[in-house]
Amino acid sequence: MKKRIVNLLLVLFMVLGSFAKTNFIYAEDGDNEEESYSEKSDYDKCIEDRDKEACKAIASSAQSSLKDIEDKIADAQNDRDKAISLAEEYAAKAASLQSEVDSLKAQIEELKVRIAELEVQIAENEAKVEEINTRVKNRMVETQKIMHFNGYIEFILGSKSFSDMLSRVYGVEAIVSKDKSDRETLIEIIEQLTKDKEELDASKSKLDENYNDIVAKQAELIAMEEFYREEEARIQDELDEMTAARDEVYQSFSDLRDALKETGVTVNSSFSTPVHNSWITGRVWNYDNNFLSGTWHLGVDYAASRGTQIHAPAGGVIIRADDSCGDPGSLSNYCGAWIAGGGNQVYLMCEVDGTVYGFIFFHMQSVYVGYGDYVLQDEVIGTVGSSGKSTGPHCHIEMYRLGRGELLDYLAMGWNATFSVGRGATAYNNRCDVSSAPCILNPEMYLP
Fold first, then answer.
1. DSSP label at residue 338
2. Domain covering 91-242 in this structure, CATH number
């Protein structure tokens, strides 16, 4: 973060640092006297001396720094929006797991209750078995004490009749058999209850495992949400600092705007001729005036000898420039950095009598300007050629009305290659005689 702000401040320093005067001290050979003098900065030259070249230099730097900051702000806003989106996404995923977490937790609690009930039943039945064991053991002890084998015989032989003897035999066997049967039944119940408990324990263990996995996953999602919330806050802090830096550049435009107005760098009262010693070979809006053909011609073709100078029709700023196309081209050559077939291209924005205009120059042979350059009215920006989709040397010029106001304000709007008017039939339908600004004009009506 600090590095980014330092870079922005360095850019700002390049723009505003020239406002201060620079002192130089020279020592003459052979003596100890020092001579000091100050050299005026570009800003002083622009403001105090109304030096147009100085104004151009500082305006170009200011515009470049503003675009750099605006680009960084746009990137930071995109990063912040992504962080917000991801935070909300992770929060939604974490929330969606909550119902599953609650369901598993309820199932686990239900199993705990059932397991506890089984443990009680097992304990009760184990107690009954122990009671039977104790009773049988006690009976055997007592029998040993009073009966032994002879006593048992005496008990049987003491019967008064045969049926009484059978009853006594069956009675003893019944008592023993009943104890054995009860004990076996209880053991079977205990075994089944123990099996049921083991199955419930296994189910609970599985639920516990699933519950822990989901809770851990939910915790990770919540942690990711918190991370992106922190990212959002961090990026917002960067945005606030970059916005403050941008506002400083905007503030520097205040004095600069007044200076540029007085020097005539950006404010013009009329347009001048862009291509001297030229003649028109193609007019708007259509080559053959057959509007149904769809062959829209959005500018005027000014023919001239190859290498003829092209002049800025008004002082302003270059917002795009490209000379990557070879010259000459042909009707099948669609070279053009922004408009296919336009060949080497230059885009100019200028202010004339309180209205901001845009110009596009196509098919140039050479381009002498670059992005961010401030040019004076009549300054040479390139030469006539036949690059791109062209059959002969000429300069295709398109003209747009962008709106009332000041150039420096419009420069910050980020105009595209079509000046927000479109191409083809869309641009024709946005011509200024039927549409409000931004709109496309007929250059013949304005350029001498």
1. S
2. 1.10.287
